[in-house]
Amino acid sequence: MINVTRESAPAAADGSSAKLLSLFATPVAKIPCPFGAEINEELAAAVLSRSAADIKDLSFKSETVGNLTDWGDPGVDRLTSWVLAMARTFVETLRGEPLHRAVGATRPSDVRLAAHRSWASIYRGGNHHAPHFHPNTAIAAVYYVASAGACDLELADPRANVEFFDPGISFANEGRTVRIGSGPGTLLLMPGWMKHSVPPYEGADVRISIAWNLAYAFSADVALQPAGD
Ligand SMILES: [Fe+2]
User: Fold this and answer.
1) Structural domain range at position 104
2) What is the Å distance from ligand 1's center to 213 Cα?
3) Tell me: the pLDDT tens digits for 155-171?
4) 112 CA to middle of ligand 1, Å?
5) How far is the CA of 195 from the centre of ligand 1 (A)?
6) pLDDT per residue over 55-110, tens digit each?
């Protein structure tokens, strides 16, 4: 099935004036956590203590093993609930309708956002993460727990084919990278297909972030079900 969105409602006078359209915008939300300052210190300690025993040591950073939602940590659970609520609001704001209406369901409880995977990332001097995206993920969520320096995230232009020809003059930020600077206590939400990277972390301390791969969970009587689930 091909999804087509009409650019504007057809009107008799629509063709009489020139228009400049800016299409295919990508939504990214940057949200301060209202209780971030309350939980960050304990959260950082919990991540570092787990990482002493249970860590995936990659060449470019370290990641906790397993799902944070299985830890039974009150700070993690409180944060995850808030992240899920923010992600729901994110989608509902963009759609301009309650989430369940988007799938033709009748009750708000027919659709929810669920964390399919969650993990903490630890960056020390010079660590980085090359461009990647999060497969099978409706919304990628990243929360910054700790850092002495800036928590930068770079977003790559997601428009297909943009890198195959450089005409010499750009007029729509073609191929540009956008760097988003955050600090501890900030949540970022973006589509799972959004390619992003972490530039080398040059802070003197550790940079700790938590990521959740979020997807929709539908009740059994909702006709539409996620593809590839
Ligand atoms: Fe990522």
Assistant:
1) 35-158+176-215
2) 9
3) 999 998 888 888 999 99
4) 22
5) 8
6) 787 878 787 777 888 888 999 999 999 999 999 999 999 999 999 998 888 899 99
- What are 91's two structure tokens? 């989608």
Residue at token pair 């093993």: 65
* Domain contains 26: no
Ligand 1 center to 196 CA (angstroms): 6
Mean predicted confidence (pLDDT) in 40-65: 84
Give 46: exposed, middle or buried? Use CB within 10 Å, 0-12, 13-18, 19+: buried
- For ligand 1, the distance from its centroid to the CA atom of residue 135, given in whole angstroms, is 10
* Residue whose token pair is 């929709």: 216
Question: Residue 210 domain-assigned?
Answer: yes
Parallel, antiparallel, or unpaired for β 129-132 and 196-198? Answer: antiparallel
Total domains in the chain come to: 1
**Rounded distance from Cα 12 to ligand 1 centre (Å):** 46
Q: For residue 92, give the CATH number of its domain.
A: 2.60.120.620
In a domain, 222, yes or no: no
